[in-house]
Amino acid sequence: MRSLAWMAVLVFALAGGVLAHAEEPTLINGKPWVYDPDDAKDIMRTCAACHGEGGAGGGGGVYPRLAGLNADYIAKQLRLFKSHERENIPMIPYATERELPERDVLNISRHLSELKIETKLPANLPSDGFARLEAMKKILQIPREPGDVAAGKVFFDAECGVCHGIRGEGHLMKPQLAGQHIKYLKTQVEGYLAGRRPHQDIADWRARPETDWADLWAYISTLQE
User: Fold this and answer.
1) What are the residue ranges spanned by the domains of the chain?
2) Amino acid 201: pLDDT
3) Where are the alpha helices (DSSP H) in the chain?
4) Distance of alpha carbon 95 from the chain centroid
5) What value does the mean pLDDT take over residues 1-6?
6) 74 CB contacts (<8 Å, ≥6 apart)?
């Protein structure tokens, strides 16, 4: 009985340690960061010019969908933009310590991660034409890409699914691919292949013919949430 009691104490102590660690605040200049949704909404007004009011992306797929991505992943990319470790010309005026200090990085990252995007039209669309158009603008639909979807799935399962999820849903610091603009994904892959962005297993990617990539885009374009 005594050993069982000590075991229970140990379990509770370990659990308490885990909880205490999980609840440790994020510090900025030695002070705890507290999420400020109003500040995040102010920042979002700037982001919306390229990424849309709901974070669904824009520019015909040039600017990526950010809504629903992992907050830590978004924050990491913003820091890479600020340090110029990741090249992004449109972000240069905004990704500075003056325009986007760490507190703002954390606020906007959390805000974007909590945004939800509809991928299907509602059953009760408004009858008014303008209102119907506005409602449809809020729906994210990725255009289908030409190619062999079945072959693209084989490529995806071999090269992408382990990190990005079996349905492209993303995992921790590996962003979701489902519901992402194909034009944006193509640009990122071009950057990886050219060595502008780091990625593992690039040698395998470079050995792939163009038809394999076309099939991959065809498959990913079918992945909707």
Assistant:
1) 31-114, 149-220
2) 77
3) 2-22, 37-51, 71-83, 102-114, 129-137, 149-159, 161-164, 182-194, 202-206, 210-220
4) 18
5) 47
6) 66, 108, 109, 112, 113
Contact 115, 56 (CB under 8 A): no
Write the class of the CATH domain 31-114.
Answer: mainly alpha
Block residue for tokens 């991505």: 69
What is the chain's mean pLDDT, rounded? 88
The separation between the first and the last C-alpha atoms of the chain, rounded to the nearest angstrom, is: 52
- Kindly indicate the confidence band of residue 130, based on its pLDDT and cuts at 50, 70 and 90: confident
Is residue 48 helix, strand or coil?
Answer: helix
pTM of the full structure = 0.84
Has residue 41 got a pLDDT over 70?
A: yes
* Domain 149-220 in CATH 1.10.760.10: yes
Contacts of 87 (CB under 8 A, 6+ apart): 196
Using CA atoms, how far apart are residues 109 and 154, in angstroms rounded to an integer? 33
Domains 31-114 and 149-220 share a fold: yes
- pLDDT at residue 50 tops 70: yes
pLDDT tens for 54-91 read: 999 999 999 999 999 999 999 999 999 999 999 999 99
Judge whether 172 and 75 are in contact, CB under 8 Å. Answer: no
